[in-house]
């Protein structure tokens, strides 16, 4: 990834303060660096949160669904098919469609689960509350989100707001196809659903180490962290999210 240079103290403070406020908090966080390579360096727990059981069996149990149409062989073609309502994986949960955003060949690709209602209302993943917070988070480590490619597993929103587990494998297969088209240098997974679908691990376990996605002859380093909507709903998690981002910045040399 291209070096972004050093932020001066006032710019960094302004950036961090901005996304903390979007998360609904104003307390300081731990800014100590974290060693990527130290096994077990992070062993946080989230209150009394109990991770869902049998997470690693989800991908194995769900049979991949066959595509109803031939998948496009370029990311712009995928976007066009999504907005046209084509029967792609994840594009039939609703009648409002949300394509990916960002350049076709970025350094960083971001993957999340579903569009939120304000994303659909505003017509972009970047314009709603989640996008604004993620912009601040990425800016804090010197990454311009407009230069990232942000894709979602389900390009329409299920009525429950959650993707059925039986759909994970098919959606993961299609997302791996998109990763092969985009070919980023690294990937950020946002939230538990993206973690289960693509890594077969629950979120808190996946956060402990840098993972990898191997597909189509490419190996991509993967950081897993909280979805911005979770940080908005549970701002106490912001310190853990900041440590995740620091690790990503250190490994990626942003």
Overview of the structural elements:
The protein is of the alpha/beta class and 254 residues long. It has a single domain (53-252), classed as Uracil-DNA Glycosylase, subunit E, CATH 3.40.470.10. The protein has helices at 9-22, 58-61, 75-83, 117-122, 129-140, 168-182, 192-199, 203-206, 228-233, 238-252; strands at 108-112, 149-152, 186-190, 211-215, 218-225. Strand 4 (211-215) and strand 5 (218-225) form a beta hairpin. The radius of gyration is 17 Å and the shape is globular.
How far apart are the termini? 6 Å
As for the number of domains, it is: 1
Mean pLDDT: 81
- The CATH homologous superfamily is termed Uracil-DNA glycosylase-like domain
CATH names the topology as Uracil-DNA Glycosylase, subunit E
Question: What is the second-level CATH architecture?
Answer: 3-Layer(aba) Sandwich
DSSP strand content: 5-15%
In DSSP terms (H or I, runs of 4 or more residues), the helix count works out at 10
Rg for CA atoms? 17 Å
Biggest sheet architecture: 5 strands, mixed
State the helicity in percent bands.
25-40%
**Strand elements, count:** 5
Order of helices and strands: HHHEHHEHEHHEEHH
Major beta sheet, strand line-up: 2-1-3-5-4
Structural class: alpha/beta
Overall body shape: globular
CATH class: Alpha Beta
Low-confidence stretches: 1-9, 27-67
Keywords: 4Fe-4S, DNA damage, DNA repair, Hydrolase, Iron, Iron-sulfur, Metal-binding
Pfam family, one: UDG
InterPro entries: UDG_Type-4/5, Uracil-DNA_glycosylase-like, Uracil-DNA_glycosylase-like_sf
Protein name: Uracil-DNA glycosylase-like domain-containing protein
